[in-house]
Design brief:
5-stranded antiparallel beta sheet; 65 residues
C-alpha cells in the first residue's frame, strides 16, 4: 500500500520507529529516504508490515499525481 507521502511495506527484518531507511522503487529506478513510523501488522510467516513516511517532498517515488 502506498500514497504520495508514505507507504506500508512488508519486511522480514525488524525496524525501529524513528529509524531512517532508503526505499527504492525498482520500476522507476528511484530511491528516497523514509522514516519508520510504526509496526502496523504481522503477516503470515516472519514478515511484518511497517508504516513509513517519505522524508523528501521533492521526490515522488511512486509517481502518484
Amino acid at each position: 500500500m502506498v500514497n504520495r507521502h508514505g507507504a506500508r511495506i512488508a519486511l522480514k527484518n525488524a525496524l525501529t520507529p524513528g529509524e531512517r531507511i532508503i526505499v527504492t522503487n525498482l520500476q522507476r529506478e528511484e530511491s528516497c529516504p523514509f522514516r519508520v513510523v510504526e509496526r502496523t501488522n504481522t503477516l503470515y510467516g516472519s514478515e511484518s508490515e511497517w508504516g513509513v513516511e517519505c522524508l523528501s517532498e521533492d521526490i515522488n517515488i511512486w509517481g502518484i499525481e
